[in-house]
TrEMBL record:
Source domain of life: Bacteria
Membrane-topology descriptor: Multi-pass membrane protein
Record GO biological process: transmembrane transport
Listed CDD domains: TM_PBP2
Keyword entries, A-Z: Cell membrane, Membrane, Transmembrane, Transmembrane helix, Transport
Cellular-component GO terms for this entry: plasma membrane
UniProt protein name: ABC transporter permease
Family: Belongs to the binding-protein-dependent transport system permease family. CysTW subfamily.
Pfam family, one: BPD_transp_1
Domain ABC transmembrane type-1 span(s) in chain numbering: 58-264
UniProt organism field: Pigmentiphaga aceris
Transmembrane portions of the chain: 7-31, 58-80, 92-117, 153-174, 195-221, 241-264
């Protein structure tokens, strides 16, 4: 009984706070999506799924989110692999370097990319110097600019779950493989990669979920073909003032993210278990 009172004392205020700042607004959004005038209706959802704009934006959101997640995986997996092989002391220092992007505002970084990737930016200036003639590679206000901005933000979210899976691999497996004469590529493809897949899957799912809610990066670095669901919510709330449609999009996005988050949670629990494998 005393433990229950202590738990209520410590957890109760935080639970009440989360209820007021998260669940109440979410409930109001769901209520707004279903309440039209003085009646309840699914008209906003019906209108959305009949809208070409919504279907195209939904597809673009999935496409950008998955591509950004896979791009982050390609960049983050080698970093996690290196961190798993260095000493604990060096790993702590390198992890601080991985966390540095978190210390800079996503808005500031997006503006910094406009300086780097613009037609007269540092990248095009360097390419012009290499080519000996003016080079203007379009890297802003298109899909490339969105991918650069999103992968820069998402790489740390790939590094840590993959690193956790790599560190959970039994070290004796590597010793046994080396004793049996296995070369490094064989060790990687038969031990490291298969046993790190739960972390990889969790990283891909979690970064995909986060990508679906991105607003600033597509708005600043993307073009007209790179509008995502969050930008569509902004369009309905500020341009057409249609709160029912904006709320319905929010509820649909929340449902997609919730289903994906449940999958991430299951994978993370599975990836945290110590595992063994035969060479």
């Amino acid at each position: 009984m005393t433990q229950k009172k202590d738990a209520l004392l410590y957890v109760g205020p935080a639970t009440l706070f989360l209820f007021l700042v998260i669940l109440v607004p979410l409930g109001f959004v769901a209520w707004t999506s279903l309440h039209t005038g003085d009646s309840w209706s699914f008209a906003a959802y019906t209108q959305l799924f009949e809208s070409v704009l919504f279907r195209r934006t939904l597809w673009t959101t999935f496409e950008i989110s998955i591509l950004a997640s896979l791009g982050s995986l390609l960049l983050g997996y080698p970093v996690a692999l290196h961190l798993a092989r260095v000493s604990a002391r060096k790993r702590a220092i390198y992890m601080v370097l991985v966390l540095i992007p978190f210390w800079t505002s996503i808005l500031v970084k997006s503006f910094a990319f406009t300086v780097l990737l613009g037609r007269s930016g540092m990248v095009n200036t360097f390419l012009s110097w290499l080519a000996g003639s003016p080079v203007e590679v379009p890297m802003l206000f298109n899909r490339l600019g969105v991918m650069v901005g999103m992968t820069n933000y998402l790489v740390p979210f790939v590094v840590f779950p993959v690193l956790a899976s790599l560190l959970a691999i039994d070290r004796s497996l590597y010793q046994a493989a080396e004793i049996m004469g296995a070369k490094p590529p064989r060790i990687f493809f038969r031990i490291t990669l298969p046993l790190s897949l739960p972390g990889v899957a969790a990283a891909v799912l979690s970064t995909t979920v986060m990508s679906m809610g991105f607003f600033v990066i597509p708005a600043l670095l993307g073009g007209r073909q790179d509008v995502m669901l969050s930008n569509l919510v902004d369009f309905y709330t500020r341009e057409t003032l249609d709160w029912n449609m904006a709320s319905a999009i929010g509820v649909i996005l929340l449902g997609i993210v919730t289903i994906a988050a449940l999958g991430v949670d299951r994978l993370q629990k599975f990836g945290a278990r110590p595992r063994t494998a035969a060479v």
